[in-house]
Amino acid sequence: MNKYNKAIHSSDVEWVILPDHGRTGNALTTFQVNSPDIPLTGNSPRTEYKIKISDTGTYRLLLHFSPTLNFHNDGGLLCAVSIDGDSPQIISLHAEDQSVRTWESWVANNIIIRSSSHRILKTGKHTIK
């Protein structure tokens, strides 16, 4: 889902589309790639996606990432995701990378899939951040 509606950049981080890199088309990444951890604030770099939901309930959002290696062995990459004004959920890309079989699966399938769960209380337009 790299066709975002809005990209919020910072002085240190810019969102860049990598043509034909993703499994379903393009991929999205940040540059500079070695930026330090960024605190979550209302001005944090992010992309926003407009969606329309026709039923209330709990939804599972699947997040697709290119395989990466936690070569610093420091907990790895983190991603935050939220819908509308909810508190961001912190997702670890490398939570399971201590298993060689897990890493092999990521590489063989060329993807890391993570998920988050969101309770939607009203129908209509929402924003994934």
Fold and architecture overview:
By secondary structure, the protein is mainly beta. It has a domain at 46-128: Jelly Rolls, CATH 2.60.120. It is 8% helix and 45% strand. It has 1 helix and 9 strands. The protein has one helix at residues 100-109; strands at residues 6-8, 14-22, 25-31, 46-53, 57-65, 78-81, 89-92, 112-120, 124-128. A 3-stranded antiparallel β-sheet has the order 1-4-9, with no helix packed on it. A two-stranded antiparallel ribbon has the order 2-3. A hairpin with a 7-residue loop joins strand 6 and strand 7. The model has no long low-confidence stretch (mean pLDDT 88).
CATH class of one domain: Mainly Beta
Order of helices and strands: EEEEEEEHEE
Strand content: 35-45%
Rough outline? globular
Low-confidence sequence ranges: none
What share of the residues lie within helices? under 10%
> Using DSSP, what is the number of strands?
9
Assembly status: single chain
Give the topology.
Layout: E1 6-8, E2 14-22, E3 25-31, E4 46-53, E5 57-65, E6 78-81, E7 89-92, H1 100-109, E8 112-120, E9 124-128
Antiparallel strand pairs: 1-4, 2-3, 4-9, 5-8, 6-7
